[in-house]
Design goal:
The protein is an alpha+beta fold. About 30% of the residues lie in helices and about 15% in strands. The chain has 10 helices and 9 strands. The protein is elongated. About 30% of the residues are buried. The protein binds a DNA duplex through helix 3.
DNA sequence: TGCGTTACGGTTGAC
DNA sequence: CTGTCAACCGTAACG
């Protein structure tokens, strides 16, 4: 909003610092100049600084316009609809593609040149804000199309949640942390992440998010975390959910020699500072409200096994993850406990 | 004295 | 919602 009062310059004219002169004055400056009046006289007559008169006349002579330039805003956007469309296409073809790979492809495919190539952070933002729910959308859409055959227990998850191992030469994007199993090359699966069958589907988090506003994805991350002075690697990628005041960390990374993917999860108790107290527990087992137990490596569970690892946590009040139970009971005997 | 240029403090709007 | 950043503004001073 324009201030009602401006400042007064040395000539007694009123101006608003940082704002253009009114168009009427700008027009008057040009008109007087065209009448042959000298700029210094225009300056005195209209009580506008001579520098301003000079600038406006110079611009008028150059562009033919009396209007001020565009104030504010950023440089021309590089994330044009066309670029976004291509990014979406890349993401659809390879849901696990990285932002920097998309950037390379935009350049290689001639969609962008080096002058209007979006930054990796811009691409990440597009993926997050505009395409982030692509996989879930496709999942929902496919769900609407008709009854889906239930995944068979004999069907390993790795076709859905597989990641490259260091031996999977071409697409190795994650270093294998110490202690993680390295698969033979023939077992290395093409990584699909995020999958249309996301971790939220498997563990039923989505249904909870739909039912409880307190559950929401917080962060996708990787790296190390400290638990009770023990340094642990959080495998890549993982999804952290905020459940009430507690934190649930879910990772999908491991692939056991028998082809089963280990779904790891961990929970922080409300009283524990998040991000510094992460409990990794076994796949197919309960979350725990306690923070006393942890598993530092992948665990294996027979497909028909029920769900506890040797390092299982104390199970507090069980909480059914409804959608998981509805859709994947036969495959994912995962339960969770309330925190 | 006239005028082009520049430093300065300010506003704006996309990101 | 807020901070950052780079565009622009007009004034004042300099040469």
């Amino acid at each position: 909003m324009e201030p009602a009062f401006g400042e007064v310059n040395q000539l007694g004219g009123v101006f608003v610092n940082g704002r253009p002169l009114p168009n009427a004055i700008r027009l008057r400056i040009v008109e007087l100049a065209q009448l042959g009046i000298r700029p210094c006289d225009i300056s005195r007559q209209l009580r506008v600084s001579h520098g301003c008169v000079s600038k406006i006349l110079a611009r008028y002579n150059e562009t033919g316009s009396i209007l001020p330039g565009a104030i504010g805003g950023s440089k021309p956007r590089v994330t044009t609809p066309t670029v976004v469309k291509h990014i979406r296409t890349y993401k659809q073809r390879d849901p696990g593609i990285f932002a920097w790979e998309i950037r390379d492809r935009l350049l290689a495919d001639g969609v962008c040149d080096k002058f209007n190539l979006p930054s990796v952070s811009s691409i990440s933002r597009i993926l997050r804000n505009k395409i982030g729910n692509l996989s879930q959308q496709s999942h929902y859409e496919s769900s609407k199309q008709g009854p889906h055959p239930q995944p068979q227990p004999t069907l390993p998850y790795n076709h859905l949640y597989s990641y490259p191992t260091p031996i999977a030469a071409t697409g190795t994007k994650v270093a294998t942390p110490p202690g993680m199993p390295t698969l033979p090359g023939h077992m290395a699966m093409h990584r699909i992440w995020p999958s249309s069958h996301s971790v939220t589907d498997i563990l039923g988090i989505r249904s909870i998010t739909e039912q409880q506003s307190t559950v929401r994805p917080v962060k996708v991350c990787e790296g190390f975390c400290v638990y009770h002075d023990i340094l642990m690697f959080i495998s890549t990628p993982c999804v952290i959910y905020l459940f009430g005041t507690s934190l649930i960390l879910i990772t999908l990374y491991f692939q056991t020699p028998n082809g089963l993917l280990t779904v790891n999860s961990c929970v922080t108790a409300p009283s524990i500072p998040p991000y510094h107290h992460l409990t990794q527990v076994s796949p197919y087992m309960a979350y725990s409200g306690t923070t006393s137990a942890y598993v530092t490596g992948p665990t294996w569970l027979p497909p028909s096994g029920s769900a506890l690892s040797p390092h299982s946590c104390d199970i507090t009040a069980p909480l059914a993850f409804k959608s998981m139970a509805a859709t994947r009971d036969s495959v994912h005997p995962v339960t969770a406990s309330a925190l």
